[in-house]
Amino acid sequence: MSEITRTEYRSRASKANQKDSANISGSYIKILTLQLFLCVLILLSAVVVKQFGAGAYDTLKQSYNEIIRESFTGKVLSENLDSIENAVSKTFSFLNDTQKEETGMGGEMPVSSFKNLKYLKAPKGTTLSPIMVFTGVTFPVEGGNVLSDFGYRTHPITGKPDFHTGIDICAPKGTRIMAAIGGTVKEITFSRIYGNVIILNHGAGFETRYCHCEKILAPKGAKIKRGEIIALVGSTGETTGPHLHFEMRKDSVAADPMWVFDKGESL
């Protein structure tokens, strides 16, 4: 092989290596972009499942599977932005159009948190952040069903968007209500909206509230053990039927009780 031939060979080999490096670098960028997109998708899916249930998640999953499949077959992710936007619109349209599937005693399904950006922020005196309880917790109504979750919803009486500061647990009138956590009866009161209410103080600014009770059984100041009967389910105040409106509050800020019960810490 002549000197000129070797030079040409080295030049061509160098160009080929540079091209391979550029291809590898481009592949890494695509992979990193895809990973970032997947992280955002996972977070969005978690929010959707928490707020709207598995049906909304299934719609998300179906919409995005097609996008991900195309990305892995060689298409640049940025070229799929239109598809991504369409999938997002389709998903949010599904959420906005979701009918109120569970009606009656506990209220109705939440309104879409995405229809108006203000719904992404909790009102004053509430929080969307998780709550943690480092003690045993009992679901307050044995055999009761949660029919209205914490958060934005359509109010079952006014029909307007509303932020629900607790959970509504449906049960027959007269069903026993148990203390979710041990504590002291701080207050027994009546209000036009919540009817008969009993509030337990658990210390460190933490309280549980039990509303719409038919009858309060525990006296003010009483020391209550976890699981002890404190009241009976009723429909006092503004309700559409017998149920318990149950709240958990820390320093007067209402948080979602299902963060606790979803962890299997009930019963």
Task: Describe it.
With 267 residues, this protein is an alpha+beta fold. It has two domains: 3-97; 117-261, Glucose Permease (Domain IIA), CATH 2.70.70.10. The protein is built from four helices and twelve strands. Residues 71-81, 94-114 and 263-267 have low confidence and may be disordered.
CATH class value of the largest domain:
Mainly Beta
| Biggest sheet layout | 10 strands, antiparallel
Distance between the termini: 84 Å
CATH architecture of the largest domain: Distorted Sandwich
Extract low-pLDDT stretches: 71-81, 94-114, 263-267
Number of helices: 4
**Strand runs, count:** 12
What is CATH's topology name of the largest domain? Answer: Glucose Permease (Domain IIA)
Strand content: 15-25%
CATH superfamily of the largest domain: Glucose Permease (Domain IIA)
Please compute the radius of gyration using only Cα atoms: 27 Å
Mean pLDDT: 74
**Helicity range of the residues?**
25-40%
Spell the H/E element sequence. HHHEEEEEEEEEEEEH
Shape: elongated
Pfam family, one: Peptidase_M23
Domain M23ase beta-sheet core: 163-257
Keywords: Membrane, Transmembrane, Transmembrane helix
Organism: Acetanaerobacterium elongatum
Outline of the structure:
By secondary structure, this protein is α+β, with helices and mostly antiparallel strands. The protein has helices at residues 3-52, 54-72, 81-97, 258-261; strands spanning 145-148, 151-154, 161-164, 167-170, 176-178, 183-191, 195-203, 206-216, 223-224, 229-233, 243-250, 253-255.
